[in-house]
Each structure stands twice: as structure tokens, then as C-alpha cells.
Amino acid sequence: MTKIAIVQQPPVYLDKQRSLDRAASLIAEAAAQGAGLVAFPEVWLPGYPTYVWRLRPGADMRQTDELFALSQADSVDLARDDLAPVREAAREHGVVVAMGHQEIDSGRSGSTLFNSVAIIDADGRLLNNHRKLMPTNPERMVWGFGDGSTLRVVETAVGRIGALICWENYMPLARYALYAQAIDIYLAPTWDSGETWHATMQHIAREGGCWVAGYATTLEAGDIPADLPWRDALFPEAGEWINPGDAVLYRPFGGCAAGPMHREKGLLFGEIDIAAARASRRKFDACGHYARPDVFTLHVNRAPQTPVVFSEG
Q1: pLDDT by residue (tens digit) across 231-264?
Q2: Of the residues 3, 16, 103, 166, which is catalytic?
Q3: Which class for 124: exposed (0-12), middle (13-18), buried (19 or more C-beta within 10 A)?
Q4: How high is the pLDDT of residue 59?
Q5: Is 299 helix (H, G, I), strand (E, B) or coil?
Q6: For this structure, is 132 an active site residue?
Q7: 66 catalytic, yes or no?
Q8: Which listed residue (3, 103, 132, 168) is catalytic?
Q9: Is residue 128 one of the residues assigned to a domain?
Q10: CATH classification of the domain holding 57
Q11: Would residue 256 show up in a list of annotated catalytic residues for this protein?
């Protein structure tokens, strides 16, 4: 059995360094309570840009530009090894960590941001960094598109783990690509919450025959820094729950194993039996005995996509 700890604590909003310190502390806390896997929500570093859902259509573009610049300045650059404190905490405590983060790629444009989730093994190695394939609605003002190179399930110290981010989980072909890689634990870091989202998580657990964890950053208006530009206009209700979190864990083939954790800050723990995932697929295996490759086939392009190719001489 593996114990998962789902983080339902906010970061230090738009403060990457202090949030990294908080992440290391939360990893240590989870490990002390026996967790082998610690999962952080969508763009936990440096904080989900929830403001994009609150800007008025046609609003002064200065609002978007100023908030984007702040968010961009605190984004994670893997080329600089910005996740080193998380990797070190994973190695020190011997736990697998899934970290949702906003990524900037200094090796390419150095400007475009990506919504990413890093899977870090218990020895501190970065196994995969999945970039969200399709940002949702106003998120396209903030993030670029990922590609198929990161659509992977990886072998970790606690089992085979894959992740799709938020509404990527509504993309049937993306889910199918993960099912086809012998997935044990399916992670769905998100900004969504509520009964409709939980129904989707339960459906995926049944469809994929895997453990499914869905979880968002719990966030109150009081967690938004007072000096954030346009704060009073965007977050006028002092006691508002911006996101209730609603972390939940579902068993393979359905049934709630832990949660939902609603409007509560802390860690949600659940027990995962890896063997139960593959055993559950006796009844329905979407990419095995229930597949019909004579009728349907899926081609996944895993080639990294780049707008520029440099050649010397």
C-alpha cells in the first residue's frame, strides 16, 4: 500500500521562492505522516492566475499586461533548476512528488509561459514535465500550448504515474494515450471543483481502471497579497473562498477512497493499492481486451515541436 498526500494548502501567492520553501515544508510534513506520494495542484508555483477569469471583456489591457509580468517573473525555469528545492525535499524524504507549476522556457523564447506538472521520483530525479496541451478559454491570454512529447506515464518508486491538467481531462484521446501506458495512478491537478468535476474523476477511474486524484488549490481572498495590482477590483469580497479545493481520491473502477476536502486547508491522505488498478481491468480494459484496433486506432505524435531549427555549417 502507498499513502498519497494531496496538498490543499495555498502557496505564497506570486512569490516563487517563499512558495518553494513552503513546498519543502509540506513535503516533510507529508512524509512524516507516512506519505510516499505528495501531489500539488495546478500551477501551485507561483499560484494559479485566477485573475484571468475576472477581467472584464475589453478591459484595459494594462491590467492583463501588469499581472502577466508579475506572474512571468516568478515562473519556474527548469533550465535554471528552479525546482531544485522540491527535488531535494523528495530525495531527502524518499517520496515521489507531483508539482504543478507555471513554466518559462529560457532556452526558447524566454517569454511564453506553460502550465506544467513535474513528476519527481523519490531519488529527486525529474522523470517527466507535462505541459498542458490546450489552455482553457481566458487561460490562452497567459499560457502557450504543450505538445505530445510530454504525454507520458512514468515508472516511479510508488507505481506508474501519469497526469493531465484540468480540462485536458475532458479530452478523450489524451486520456486514452495515458491508459495505453499501463497507468496505475492518474493525477488530475486542476482549478475546477464541485460535483461535476468529481463525476468526471469517478468516470475516469472507471474508464481507465486506475487510481484517480483530482485536486485544486484551496484559496481565500485573504491569501491574495494586498499589493497585487487591481486587487480590490478583482477580489472585492474580503471573506470570499476563491477556490474550495475539493481534493478527492477515487478507486479503480469507481468509488470514493478519500475526500472531498471542501473549504479546508491541510493535507488529504488516502491509501493506494497499486495491484488493484490492473486487477480492476479484468472487467474493462480500454486499451486491452475491450479495444477494437480493427475499427479504431490512435496515433500520438511524441516529437517535440519547435518553431526554429538551427544547423551549423
Answers
A1: 988 899 989 999 999 999 999 998 999 999 999 9
A2: 166
A3: middle
A4: 62
A5: coil
A6: yes
A7: no
A8: 132
A9: yes
A10: 3.60.110.10
A11: no
